[in-house]
């Protein structure tokens, strides 16, 4: 019994740090959202649900939620198209370069996201690599706008979160017995048909879990929309930053932040459920 | 075999996409021509000699913060992970959920919450945490602690308790068995958790944006501001050095500890 209590003491420092760094700040944020705005940096006394009612009644907020979700779906869709072939290749290849290839998937994910965003500027700008190539090949006559707008945000987010999808899918595909594919080929299906009708259905749990992870990360990301959107793309997170950082409307900012938190946590738990079901 | 070739081409293109922005930072850090015109008309090393002092100061703030937040993460996270797995504590599932819950919260929400809470701390205790490195460390501890806990929990699931029991039955005291047998076996998990926590702290923008500032502006926040307001190529040299250092660190760690430990989702 005394020993058990000793284990409990080992947990206390972590709980204390998390209380100071996370739980109490979050509780304070929740309280802020229950007060009304009373000028920059100040709130009215008295608890009220008015902020949430106002949030739900304003069509602008629904637009913002819808728009952010649409962005998330776009990022998930493109990531699936790009990620599936790579995940399949990584799961099935026998090359001795496999560890290096995995490193190529993981390393970009760990390089600071602002540095990666910065790296896209010379590639996507009007006189950048992509536009120079497109014009030289005669595919477009005017340079495309790929930066400081939605296109830039989508490219940045796909780049940021594709590795999570690839790793999730590769793990699931690796568990599928290659003999099932051989059987399908022996029975006369082509490689593409085998992939679509045998591999894909077996990958379903991974597809759902991976898509949910990417969607959650995409709708709650702040840095990439801020940099790649050039301040012109408003999503939930950049809107919260604007309310609190620029307008000093702590009450509205806190309310939208709590909505974002609940939404993100709900999606994360859903993703966790699916990845557990698959394991 | 057209399908096989098609797959390889598609995979190669996606890999090119993955490394493109990092390659781009490195290539353009040597460009001496007009800004971002492709292909670069001249090459130079001059940017490496003229990294602005403000950026070096910000790099120092970032490193101090990341080291501090990692030390806090390991110091409180490793004992917590041990207690959660081996303690047979009451409500251990709920306690684990509390310890790991910050990983489900968007970074921006943590940033905003820390900012407002540190304002309250100042109002009540006259203790100024905003725009200071200790404040940044506390803000980042919200995710470095759970990262270390998660890595060390995973490390214990994989390891063989029989080895520790063997040490005990051969006469080692529990304390000795822990320090000479258990801890060395957990070292890779602790190390990968620590490195991941370090990189997440070093990468963070949303928390540092709200909590930092002034003399405690981190490198990512300074880069973000300069991209939005007055971009100049002299910062590319520093970015390319930092990116190269991170890639080397990750390559080294993946050789030492395996890659699988680095794959948890995070918000950026």
Can you tell me about this structure?
The complex is a heterodimer of chains A (279) and B (268). Chain A is an all-alpha fold and 279 residues long. Helices cover 77% and strands 0% of the residues of chain A. Chain A has a single domain (50-112, 146-278), classed as MetI-like fold (Orthogonal Bundle). In chain A, helix 8 (178-186) runs antiparallel to helix 9 (191-202). The longest helix of chain A is centred in the N-terminal third of the chain and has 34 residues, at 59-92. Chain A is globular and about 75 Å long. Chain B is mainly α and 268 residues long. Chain B contains 11 helices and no strands. Chains A and B meet through helix 1, helix 3, helix 4, helix 5 and helix 7 of A and helix 1, helix 3, helix 4, helix 5 and helix 6 of B.
Short note summarizing the structure:
The complex is a heterodimer of chains A (279) and B (268). Chain A is mostly helical and 279 residues long. In chain A, 77% of the residues lie in helices and 0% in strands.
Mean pLDDT of chain A: 88
Mean pLDDT across every amino acid position of chain B:
87
- Fraction in helix of chain B: over 70%
The percent range for strand residues of chain B is: under 5%
Q: Which strand-content bin applies to the residues of chain A?
A: under 5%
CATH superfamily of chain A: MetI-like
Which range best describes the helical content of chain A: under 10%, 10-25%, 25-40%, 40-55%, 55-70% or over 70%?
Answer: over 70%
Structural class of chain B: mainly alpha
Most extensive chain contact?
Answer: A-B, 92 and 95 residues
CATH architecture term of the domain at 48-233 in chain B: Orthogonal Bundle
Biggest sheet layout of chain A: none
């Amino acid at each position: 019994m005394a020993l058990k209590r000793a284990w409990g003491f080992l947990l206390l420092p972590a709980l204390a740090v998390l209380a100071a760094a996370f739980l109490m700040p979050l509780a304070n944020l929740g309280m802020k959202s229950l007060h009304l705005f009373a000028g920059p940096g100040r709130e009215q006394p008295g608890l009220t649900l008015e902020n949430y009612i106002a949030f739900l009644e304003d069509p602008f907020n629904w637009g913002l939620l819808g728009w952010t979700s649409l962005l998330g779906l776009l990022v998930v869709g493109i990531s699936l198209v790009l990620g599936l072939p790579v995940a399949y290749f990584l799961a099935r290849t026998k090359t001795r370069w496999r560890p290096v290839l995995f490193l190529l998937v993981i390393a970009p994910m760990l390089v600071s996201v602002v540095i990666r965003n910065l790296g896209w500027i010379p590639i996507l700008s009007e006189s950048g690599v992509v536009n120079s190539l497109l014009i030289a090949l005669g595919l477009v006559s005017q340079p495309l706008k790929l930066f400081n707008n939605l296109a830039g945000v989508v490219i940045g987010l796909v780049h940021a979160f594709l590795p999570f999808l690839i790793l999730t899918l590769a793990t699931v595909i690796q568990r599928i017995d290659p003999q099932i594919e051989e059987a399908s080929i022996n029975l006369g299906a082509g490689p593409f048909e085998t992939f679509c009708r045998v591999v894909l259905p077996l990958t379903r749990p991974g597809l759902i879990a991976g898509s949910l992870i990417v969607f959650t990360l995409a709708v709650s990301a702040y840095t990439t929309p801020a940099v790649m959107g050039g301040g012109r793309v408003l999503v939930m997170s950049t809107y919260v930053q604007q309310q609190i950082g620029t307008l000093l409307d702590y009450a509205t900012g806190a309310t939208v932040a709590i909505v974002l938190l609940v939404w993100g946590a709900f999606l994360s738990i859903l993703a966790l459920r699916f990845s557990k079901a698959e394991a | 075999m057209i399908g096989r070739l098609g797959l390889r081409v598609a995979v190669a293109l996606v890999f090119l996409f993955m490394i493109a922005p990092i390659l781009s930072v490195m290539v353009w850090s040597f460009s001496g021509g007009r800004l971002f015109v492709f292909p670069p008309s001249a090459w130079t090393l001059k940017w490496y000699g003229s990294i602005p002092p403000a950026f070096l100061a910000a790099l120092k703030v970032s490193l101090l913060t990341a080291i501090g937040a990692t030390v806090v993460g390991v110091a409180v996270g490793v004992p917590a992970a041990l207690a959660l797995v081996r303690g047979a504590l009451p409500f251990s599932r709920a306690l684990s959920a509390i310890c790991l819950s910050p990983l489900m919260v968007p970074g921006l929400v943590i940033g905003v919450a820390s900012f407002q809470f540190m304002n309250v701390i100042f109002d009540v205790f006259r203790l100024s945490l905003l725009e200071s490195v200790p404040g940044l460390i506390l803000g980042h501890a919200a995710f470095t602690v759970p990262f270390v806990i998660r890595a060390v929990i995973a490390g214990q699931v994989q390891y063989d308790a029989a080895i520790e029991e063997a040490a005990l039955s051969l006469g080692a005291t529990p304390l000795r068995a822990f320090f000479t047998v258990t801890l060395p076996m957990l070292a890779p998990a602790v190390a990968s958790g620590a490195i991941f926590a370090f990189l997440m702290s070093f990468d963070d923008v949303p928390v540092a944006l709200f909590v930092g500032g002034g003399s405690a502006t981190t490198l990512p926040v300074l880069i973000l501001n300069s991209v939005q307001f007055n971009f100049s190529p002299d910062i590319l040299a520093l970015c390319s050095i930092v990116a190269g250092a991170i890639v080397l660190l990750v390559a080294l760690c993946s050789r030492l500890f395996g890659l699988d430990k680095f794959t948890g989702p995070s918000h950026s």
